Amino acid sequence: MKPLRLIIGIVTFTLYTSLAVGQIPFQSDNNTYRITYTSSVNGKTSPNQNRIVVFTNARQTLITNEKDFKGEGKYPLEVSLVNRTNLSQQLYTLLDHANCIATIDSTAIKNQQIELQEGNKKILGYNCKKAKTVVNSNTIEFWYTSDLPVKGAPTVLGQNLGLVLEMIRNGNFVMSADEVKKTAYTNPSRFASIKPRLFDLLSYRDEIWRNRFTTIELFKDQLINFSDTATVKPDVMRFANGTIVVKKVKFPSLADAKTVFLDLQEQSNGDAYDRTGTVFLIPVDKKQSFLDGLKNGVSTLPVFENGNGKKYQGVAATVDYSPAIELMRFFTPFGIKQYNHIQLKGKDWHQVVPYRQDITAYASLLDGKEVYIGVFIGNYDKGGHKINAAITVHRGGDEPPKKVVSLFNTLNIMEMAGQEYATMFDKPEGLTVQFELNEAISSAVLRYTTTGHGGWGNGDEFVPKENTILFDEKTIFKMVPWREDCGSYRLFNPASGNFATGLSSSDLSRSNWCPGTVTNPFVVQLGNLSAGKHTIQVRIPQGAREGSSFSAWNVSGVIVGD
């Protein structure tokens, strides 16, 4: 018996030498068979599916599909080759027309535990026996034949049974052979003249995964802190003493990429407290924008007043101004990473808090455009917070809304530059915005994000308050936004205060947020909206001020539709 190290070395050498001349190293002979498999779910077969194609003989089995084999599939294209001499699997993937990667899996076949079962049936005239295995809680049944001098299967599973003509997963997903014939083999055309780069198995899979979507980097190792002396990156603008960072980002055409996600990771770089954060996009569709306020001062933004004597800058849409659009509302935990030295028995603190948000509703604002995207974290700490942020664009999904209308955003992003806190809900009128649609919007939806603040016992952060929204004087939304799952995120919060009750501050329920989480928007169906003037009003029974303590509500609202 050859040592395993020698066998792997031989396989690696074969992989390199064969692909150096642009060939998948499948060695065809006079007993090579081609088998095609059709899939069905719950007995229903899609008429235009991309069928699995298998070439197999006594020495090897190659697994591909019709489109990839013909050169008609979309990248990435993968071919799997099973070598029966050592029961190893070689994997080749074209990431694009000139970039091929490869790996060797020496355990995928050898480690299979398959149980032979009672049962017989005929498939395509061949006598078949039954076998079964369980993979990740999925029951896989095989029907295989020994009537032919070859083995093979439509996946890596069951390769050593015989020729598998049918695979059934969990009783409802079926791959059935619909043709078995002797044939000559030719290499897939797209793999011609491309030498692969060899990876270990985990890195190979990671390369394929990352190739399935487009990543647009927003911020990398970006400090958000309260300081005028921080290092300034050439493509990043800092405002409000460094608590806001803004970047102009160029997006490609989204084409068939219909799904968009925003990722952000945060670590404390000195600040120990839970803070309000937001990732926002600045609309520039009107005469004035939020960027003007960032550059020229908060006093230059349009003012909203409701009779309580305060002036709220830049929070409501006007004829000439659109508020910043929230892509993500997030809350930092208490001192993650920076304060992980605080020890509690049984607590193994996380190093970073990840936030991930579906922002497909705003895809039309990004498609092939240059846009201003910013991040704010409210803090007065010189160390502050460190973030990384990126947007990923994925193929598939439903068509995103074509129209986006920003109505209000009371989160005082320019808090550290003097923007007023959102205390306008101390009056029954709350926040009222009058706006005009230049054209009708069908299937309109209001995306409404709300969180209550006031961090003492009677503050609205800890007191449930009903939010009511009226659209054209009709109530369309009425509920109490509240989170009771904050204790789930305790391991993000090493610096959270601990009380005599045995609770931590980060455990406490709050008005629709928790330290270390994203706050999702409420989705309110509006139906079809006509062109012309409309009114939207938000009412919240805001708690009364107690000495220097006061409550505030950060609410944002955007209409999307077609």
From TrEMBL:
InterPro entries per the UniProt record, alphabetical: Cu2_ascorb_mOase-like_C, PHM/PNGase_F_dom_sf, PngaseF_C, PngaseF_N, PngaseF_N_sf
SUPFAM superfamilies linked to this entry: PHM/PNGase F
Record organism: Niabella yanshanensis
Domain (Peptide-N-glycosidase F N-terminal): residue spans on this chain: 215-393
Designated name of the protein: PNGase F N-terminal domain-containing protein
Domain of life: Bacteria
Keyword entries, A-Z: Disulfide bond
Cross-referenced Gene3D superfamilies: 2.60.120.230, Peptide-N-glycosidase F, N-terminal domain (2.60.120.1570)
UniProt entry tagged with the keyword Chloroplast: no
Entry's transmembrane regions: none
